Amino acid sequence: MKIRYLATGLFAAGGIATGGILLFDKLGKEPVPPSLRNAATWIPEPMPLPTFSNSDANDLDMGKKEVAPTFTSPAPLASAIAETSAPVIEPLPEVWSREIASGETLDTVLAEAGLVASERAEIALALAAEYDLRRLRPGHGLTVETGHDGHLQRVVLDVDDGVRIETVFGADVATRVLSPESELLIRAAETRIESSLFAALADAGIPARFAVDLAQMLGGTVDFRRDLSGGEIMRLMWREERVEGGVIGQPELDFAVLDLGDTQFEIVWPEDGTGRATIYRDGEMMRVFAQPVEGARLSSVFGRRAHPVYGDTRMHTGVDFAAPRGTPISATAPGRISFIGRRGGYGRVVEISHGSETMTRYAHLSAVPDGLAVGDRVAAGDTIGRVGATGTATGPNLHYEVRVNGRPTDPLSDDRLAEAVEHEERNDDAIMRLGAARTLLDEHLAGLLPTNPNERL
């Protein structure tokens, strides 16, 4: 009985609940917007069937037996492995280097470097192909490079003015000369002479060695001890070569002016390197002078002196110019070769006749140009030999004599040679050179021109 009532109650409750839900759903439903209704009814169009090419490559042969694919491992990259191998490092060469000291020869220095006699001889022959080894001097540098196996690789000889002689040893032996690139500078300065010409130049930062050139040019015309009382003006213009800021070689004078107050002397040096300087007095050409050795130091003057070898007092019949062995020697005046050979203590000599009365002698020479012979005509500035130390000499120098009717005379005061040269010069050309030199000097002193001529526009 009770079970029947329970089932009847549950059925009634379920009906009531269902009816409530339906009633609630009907009352809460709102109309759907047309756009949403259309979207809900959208059906995608059917995709087109694929088409197949008639190419044989794309035909599907369903009758063929299916073959399973095979897989292989990639081959190792041999080149990549080789490129990543460790590089072979060559051992560095062994380097030995030092300067040549006084009294040493190339052979003794190479022996100290541990080289055997055959290697030293090979090096000497190779270097001598480009450089006269007799010109070796203290201060020159030598560098020897050898490989780890002890074999020669390279030898470098550092000589004057930054020049290097390099020999490379290998299958062939090659020697070359390496010269540094230099910068040419033009400089000018003015100084007042108070005590001496040397001191005045040094105080103004002018190479003091120019005093020798000026004394040589004006010898016999100006007495630098008696004619200079103080206050005289000296103006100079010169050129010098520089490498990395340092001066190489000897500076060369271009123009000099000595103002004594009542008289003015001017000297113009040529640009052709012949050393044939023209001297002017108060604007008029006075004489032409050709130096026997360009840039040399006047080491001994004419007159009585203590002999440097024998020690007693003797007459020195010429003047001496100290210069490195091999420096060119020039004829100081036009003439004809009258003698080539040896004369006792003079050593190797060249003599030039300048007319019937005057002769110049150049002694202690190391060499004479090939082909130069007695009777040859030479002009002022022609090379007639090279500085040496033959005969009785304490070192390389030129002994220069001027003889008139067989008797020695002071080369720095005699005007006969100047007269022999002067007729070769045209006065108009000389005056034009003087005017150009004056203009350049004034412009350089005023700072209107650059010191480096390559900077001119």
Question: Which secondary structure elements does this structure contain, and how are they paired or packed?
Answer:
Layout: H1 2-28, H2 34-40, H3 78-83, E1 94-99, H4 106-112, H5 117-128, E2 141-146, E3 152-158, E4 164-168, E5 174-178, E6 183-193, H6 197-203, H7 210-218, E7 232-243, E8 246-259, E9 264-268, E10 276-281, E11 284-290, E12 297-300, E13 303-306, E14 313-316, E15 319-322, E16 328-330, E17 335-342, E18 348-354, E19 358-363, E20 377-378, E21 383-386, E22 397-404, E23 407-409, H8 416-422, H9 427-445
Antiparallel strand pairs: 1-2, 2-3, 3-4, 4-5, 6-7, 7-8, 8-9, 9-10, 10-11, 12-15, 13-14, 15-22, 16-21, 17-18, 17-20, 18-19, 19-22, 22-23
Could you provide a short overview of the structure?
This protein has helices at 2-28, 34-40, 78-83, 106-112, 117-128, 197-203, 210-218, 416-422, 427-445; strands spanning 94-99, 141-146, 152-158, 164-168, 174-178, 183-193, 232-243, 246-259, 264-268, 276-281, 284-290, 297-300, 303-306, 313-316, 319-322, 328-330, 335-342, 348-354, 358-363, 377-378, 383-386, 397-404, 407-409.
